[in-house]
Amino acid sequence: MANNLKNRTRTRDLVLLAVFTALVVILQFLPIQIPGGIFSITLVLPVIVIGVAICGKWAGAWLGFVFATVVMLTGGADFFLFMNPPYTYITTPLIVYVKGIGAGLVAGIVYDVIKNKNHTVASIGAAVVSPIVNTGIYLIGCFLFFKDTVDAWLQGAENMSAFLFISLGLGNFLIELAVNLVLCPVIIRLVDLVVKKKISR
Is 2-29+38-200 CATH 1.10.1760.20? Predict the structure, then answer.
């Protein structure tokens, strides 16, 4: 009986993970451009947060990997990819995959740590930390690998650090964080429904 329940739970999680994977792919193909900006915001982070809350932190890592793969395949990182080849053929995918996987994995870890105390707080924590990790790793990668190149490209920019933080990082982060927080009630409701269903069994 216990084995049958375990198998059903595993099958359900795999089906849900497949659905979340499809949603990540679809949403990443529909990027929203910030007016006047050169980068798009992503709508997949709420899906990743729901995925980690329902299927676990490793599901978050997987969804982050899928997110990063679609970014690379759709040309979302081409600005950096072709900036200074062949050097950027290595550094660009490195940043994209580390930030994507990190956003899902860290959100999952935060949720796991808090969930036994309060599912609502755990969901909000995961929703907040996901865009922080996504943008934070992106900015760190810019400073480590692309500062000189972007400095040369943006000859009129007096302060490269301020440009990256405000124009390329802060704008994306605030919008992605706002989207996650607006969708938090939906995230919390979905997670609560799944958790209650697990408990009732």
Answer: yes
